[in-house]
Every structure is written in structure tokens, then in C-alpha cells.
Amino acid sequence: MNKITMTLQADHLILEALKEDISSEDVSTNAVMKEAVAGEVDLICKQDGIVAGLEVFRRVFELLDADTTAEFFCSDGDEVKAGQLMGKVRGDIRVLLSGERVALNYLQRMSGIATYTHSVAELLKGSRTKLLDTRKTTPNMRIFEKYAVRVGGGYNHRYNLSDGVLLKDNHIGAAGGVAQAVKMARDYAPFVRKIEVEVENLDMVREAVDAGADIIMLDNMSPDEMREAVRIIGGRAETECSGNVTKENIARLTELGVDYISSGALTHSASILDISMKNLHAVE
């Protein structure tokens, strides 16, 4: 995540997280630290995984005090091992204490998503299929969580509702059918927008193809139905399958030949990666 993205898209979210954790003061820290004392603390990995979010971790402390520095011994996307020293943070001990929880929340969450995404993406190696995330993200965490998916080897689906046309079951119901929904979207959306249609059965697949959909999402269909759907589409649209896809069941989809598999589990079901800040001490 580069500095421009951080400044424009992430800083205000990080500040809100800090305000949530420090509404007026850090009572515990202020009780034991009456004045500024320079200190250093180790960033230690306690679990094997893929790291993501180091610059977000650093930014938490910088927003509290621009003089805080962080030195990392690994980079986003690297495999880390339990017990590994990942970096050191130096600055006013009061800042290190007050920013610790928020900084670790970001780093643990993002690294957990990257780790889980990596494990799922590995199952698609050797196939033509790309692994996508969804909009099933934690409120106000989407920019961080979708970044973590990319670090883990996945790809981003649309970022938000302004990013692309995806006609789901309720859109189709509101429009009066697949053909009507696609026509309305074609008339409304700029020509540069692709139109994706979610379908639930083979009749809807045929309607979406005939309507000229650019991407057809096969939602909660059986492997046999999806195999037949791919045959019906015959390359006339890109294909995506979705619906409760996890690491445990994705193997049944790898031989279908679809262009994309999307999984909300990448962001809504990934466990955190256990990382901690230890050995805080004063320095000269």
C-alpha cells in the first residue's frame, strides 16, 4: 500500500480507529509514563503465515507521533514463521503503548486474510481460474482487507457499488427478468462498464447469454449444473462461480474451466495471524 493511497484512502480510517480506542486519553499509559521517554519494542510473529499490512502498522504510530520510526525485517507477501523477529518500532514509549492495539489489530487481521487467501490460491495453481474476493468485508476495513487478498495471491472483484454492474437476483426481480435487467443496465451504464449477471439455474444462463451479458456468475449451482452452464455459454461470456466457496470445498470447482471463482470467506472467515509487540524498553 503506497503513501498516496495511505494518505488519501486510509489515514482517516486509521484515525477513526485510534479515536475509538483513545476517546480522551490512555489512562493506563499516562499513569505510568509521566513524560516522554525514548523506547524500542520488538514485533514478533507467533504463528506461521503470510504477512500483510506492515505499512498500515507503521502508519498508526506515525499518526500519533511523526517522529516514530519502524524498521521491518520482512515485507508484505513474505512467509513468516513462529518466533520470527519481524521488526522493531522506536519512539516515545507513550506512543508505542497507546498505538499498540490498533496497529496490531490491522496487522493481525490483514496477515490472517493474506494467509488464508494464499492457502486457497495454492489449490488453484495450474488452472486458468483466478480467485476473487467479494464485498463481504468488515465495515470501514474494505481497503485493508482487499489489499490483503492481493498480497495473499488473490484478485479483487469490484471494490464497491460504483465500481461495476453486477445484476443479482433482486435486481433481476426488480427489473422483471434477466433480459430486461441487462437491457436497462446497457442503456444506463457507460459503454466502458462490463455487465455481470448472477444466475441460479440453466434457464437463466441461457437468458443471460442471449441478452449479451459480459460475465455470467453461476451462483450456488451444483458442479454438474455449472459444467453444463460453461458448455452452454461456450466462451460467449466470461464465467464466474460463487456461493459458499471455502478452502475445504473449492477442489470440486477447479476442473470446471471457469474464469473466476469468488469467495466471501477470504475476508469474512479468515482467522487473524498471531503477532505481538514484546520486549519494550527505554533506549538512549
From TrEMBL:
It comes from the Bacteria. Coiled coil: none annotated. InterPro entries: Aldolase_TIM, NadC, NadC/ModD, Nicotinate_pribotase-like_C, Quinolinate_PRibosylTase_N_sf, Quinolinate_PRibosylTrfase_C, Quinolinate_PRibosylTrfase_N. Transmembrane segments: none annotated. Residues 26-111 form the Quinolinate phosphoribosyl transferase N-terminal domain. Keywords: Glycosyltransferase, Pyridine nucleotide biosynthesis, Transferase. The keyword Transferase applies. It catalyses: nicotinate beta-D-ribonucleotide + CO2 + diphosphate = quinolinate + 5-phospho-alpha-D-ribose 1-diphosphate + 2 H(+). GO terms for biological process: NAD+ biosynthetic process; quinolinate catabolic process. It is an enzyme of class 2 (transferase). Involved in the catabolism of quinolinic acid (QA). Belongs to the NadC/ModD family. Hexamer formed by 3 homodimers. This is Probable nicotinate-nucleotide pyrophosphorylase [carboxylating]. It comes from Candidatus Mediterraneibacter faecavium.
